[in-house]
């Protein structure tokens, strides 16, 4: 049981590190520059993670995600799923594979089932289904907190890409743990933030 708890705690640190690094890098942008995913990354609340590549979040569907019908915009669902499903790869990352932000999206296929009223708290559940060195597939669903209503589902295919060198410079305590586990040596010029 203790090793399960350690594995779960490590998986939580891996996902949290993605969010922490995102916020460090975002804070370095000019004050007027807010990336498209900024609001989602600020509003997703991490609930649960497993070492096998699952991640569960909750978030309130605020007005910033609405359309004129006072429900979640379909494009907002795509952005939310993009970030939430990518995070399921964090516990599975290895040096050169699925590190920070987990590559780039190849396809993101969403099935909209029921509208999400503005003000509703939703749960987003993501599971890495197939993960190779260059391609990954993650499935997800957006449901009510009680799990009784499914609002939409997603199948997200990703392609692995190298981490940008400037992103590697935004160091976190997680990097030391990750590098030690995988025998990675820190390159010159990289400093811990």
Automatic annotation (TrEMBL):
InterPro entries: ACOT13, HotDog_dom_sf, Thioestr_dom. Pfam families: 4HBT. GO terms for molecular function: fatty acyl-CoA hydrolase activity. Residues 71-149 form the Thioesterase domain. It comes from the Eukaryota. Belongs to the thioesterase PaaI family. This is Thioesterase family protein-like protein. The lineage of its organism: Eukaryota, Fungi, Dikarya, Ascomycota, Pezizomycotina.
């Amino acid at each position: 049981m203790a090793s399960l708890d350690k594995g779960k705690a490590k998986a939580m640190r891996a996902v949290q590190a993605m969010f922490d690094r995102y916020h460090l890098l975002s804070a370095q942008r000019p004050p007027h520059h807010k990336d498209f995913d900024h609001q989602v990354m600020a509003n997703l609340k991490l609930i649960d993670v497993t070492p096998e590549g699952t991640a569960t979040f909750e978030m309130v569907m605020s007005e910033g995600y609405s359309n004129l019908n006072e429900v979640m915009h379909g494009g907002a669902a795509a952005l939310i799923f993009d970030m939430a499903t990518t995070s399921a790869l964090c516990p599975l990352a290895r040096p050169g594979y699925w590190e920070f932000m987990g590559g780039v999206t190849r396809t993101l296929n969403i099935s909209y089932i029921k509208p999400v009223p503005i003000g509703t708290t939703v749960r987003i559940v993501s599971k890495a289904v197939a993960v190779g060195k260059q391609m990954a597939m993650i499935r997800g669903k957006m449901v009510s907190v009680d799990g009784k209503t499914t609002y939409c589902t997603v199948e997200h295919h990703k392609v692995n890409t190298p981490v940008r060198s400037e992103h590697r410079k935004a160091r976190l305590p997680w990097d030391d743990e990750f590098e030690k586990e995988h025998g990675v040596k820190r390159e010159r010029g990289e400093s811990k933030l």
